[in-house]
Amino acid sequence: MAGVRGAVEGWPKAILRLEGAAALAVAGALFRIEGGSGILFAALILLPDIALAAYLAGPKIGAIVYNAVHTTIGPLLLSAAGYASGRALIIQIGMVWLAHVGLDRLLGFGLKYADRFASTHLGILQATK
Fold this sequence. Notes:
Elements: H1 10-33, H2 38-44, H3 59-69, H4 73-85, H5 88-106, E1 119-120, E2 123-124
Antiparallel strand pairs: 1-2
Helix pairs in contact: 1-5, 4-5
């Protein structure tokens, strides 16, 4: 995609979006296996987007905070802690968080570059062109 340094193009971009779909599906299934309710899922699925508020401090801070919350690292570590402690609610929260990250990738919302909100590793966000 022209205009975004480092943006993924072609088949690799399609694969990353399919990975997002897979993360969403597996996280949703594990959430249900761990006894999660649809109400809890609905209540939490958009919670990671609170990180967008960091853009009020500028695009660099916004990108750092957004990316920290929109990688698989946090939800996987949280879920592992839940499994280690035997706490289903912690696992469920981690799985909703992972589902959110997967949904974002599926929809084409990539990790952000610091120049502006619309610049992502999956290209320029279409709605902001």
